[in-house]
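ugh ok fine here u go
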Amino acid sequence: MKLCEGKMGVYSHSKLSTYEQCKYRYKLRYIDKIPSPVEKSIEAHLGTCTHDALEWMYKEVISGRVPELNEVVEKYTSRWQEDYKDNFLIVKKDMKAEDYFNKGIKFLIDYYLKHKPFEDGTLEMEKKVWVELDPDSEHKIIGYIDRLVYNKEKKEYEIHDYKTANSLPTQEKFDLDRQLALYAIGIKQIFGENTSILLTWHYLNHNKQIFSKRTNEELNKLKKDTLLLIHEIENNNEYPTNRTILCDWCEYKQYCKEFGNDIPKQYKEKQTQLFKEEIKDEFPTASKYIKD
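structure:
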């Protein structure tokens, strides 16, 4: 019996990845819905501010105006200052918030100089896509494409994604990437199965673009594999911790039993109450034995 979680028809790549990385983190976040003790990491803040500045810039381009570089930097700076908080998690002790802020400035300068005047056929920013995995299944994937482009010369759609990470994965990992491949399925479900799609990652810290493509056979296999993963998630009752290098960036580390920590008392009481309610729902004849 799976407690505290009903059938969840809508998933995201982020949600699936959380389950794969650490089932205990998945439980705290998506099943128990316990608020994180850490509001945000500095890397996440950097990513958000950089994405927002680029989104604003391309919306201006779509409207017919190419902003000056200083305007893009000002938009980034404004966003950083508006949302920055002193309690953001900074794992790297040799780095300060100002260092991350300056990294974002460099990302935008490098990107702007490399891609201006941005005449690339950009259609939409943060395009919402729904991915149907199987006509007979209630499960769908929701996603947001950083930038959708249509290349008229090649008659090809391009799915662009921005990354601010330090590390640059191998081409093999890009060719196996699930996130943008799922988005490709969503675009094909809109424009047709034979639509040509190029997956494009912008690794801003390296000022580099990486490309990949998928065949329809590969995408059909991905749909099946994703559905199998969802079925595993919904039938799972065990949520062990998974200690890796990523733990230092986990927003639930302060609540993690792997590090000798525990969740606060009020959330334990909530878990207990949800447990009792679900027992009553599934076994009504036994409800008289459940004490409130």
